[in-house]
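Long-time lurker, finally posting.

We've been working with PEGA domain-containing protein (Polyangium jinanense) and I want a structural starting point before designing mutants. I don't trust myself to interpret raw outputs, so I'm hoping someone here can both generate the structure tokens and explain anything notable. Sequence follows.
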Amino acid sequence: MISSRLSRHSRRAAWVGLLAATAWARPAAAAEPAVPDPAALALFESARELVEKGDWAAGCAKFEASLMVYSAPSTMLNLAKCYEHEGKLAKAWSAYKRALVLNQETPGAERKSALDTIAKEGITQIEPKLPRVKLTVVNPPAGLYITRNGQEVPAAMLGSVIPVDPGPQTLAVQAPGFRAIRKSFTAAEGKTEEIAIKLEPESGDAATPGGGRIPAWAWVAAGGGVALGVAAATFRVDQAHIEGRQEARCNGELERGCPPLSEYDPTEDNARKKRDFALFVGLGAGGVLALGAAVTGFVLGSRSPSRGTSAGPVVVPWIGPNVAGAAVGGRF
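Top reply, 14 upvotes:
Generated this for you. Predicted structure of PEGA domain-containing protein:
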């Protein structure tokens, strides 16, 4: 109980010490011709009073407002302490760094040295606890857009180790023609999270070991070619069946050995044979064309990297009363 009180007392004493050290001085006009904005000074003093009373939320909001009006290193240091109190370590670290820059123009060597010391001590205490994230995107496509917790991540940050605040993080990655990815993780103090993202095309084209992609139309053409080939074989089998039946009826002599028309009229079987043969030839040719287009797609896809969805050959089968086939259109 006593140690807890002492801890709270020491933290409060440290904060009061910081407030005292970072209070705005009022130098002579000769030392600092540019007088700070009165509104910024009023906000700063009000923020100090609120924080001393334990009202961090209201006090820190006023420090932020004061900084927007006038960028003073003392205000930045107090704001860094606010972020640190809220657990926003990355923002606190950045604020301490910014305070060092602003302090370069502080008049008075003693005050400037005191503010430098406070900023450097804050950086030293925070840096070992900073969570960090290293994000990479495999083969980043054109139009890549990344956000972390709703804030855009510039492409220049890819591959760099970036400090972040501890706690839940959400990454959203998207690019035209690719499936969007959303990934959540928790940034832990003192840890570096390495995340590699690989976007997949929306078309679902299959990747090949050589780095290219077999286009979807090649798979469609292959399936269509097989289907046309099976259909052609079916009609050829039916044609052979009719031919066998006629040879049996006509004793192998279709011209002279057939029975009289009153017993067997070959007209219907002959028409059926012709239709079967026409369908066999048409569908077979269409199947060959479709399989040829598929092979072309496989070869080109395995050699060329994906450049998005492109139009390729389109195989359209057609069947008429006595003939069938397939049309191949599109572009390679």
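Before you design anything, note these points.
The first strand starts at residue 132 and ends at 137.
The domain at 132-200 is CATH 2.60.40.1120 (Immunoglobulin-like).
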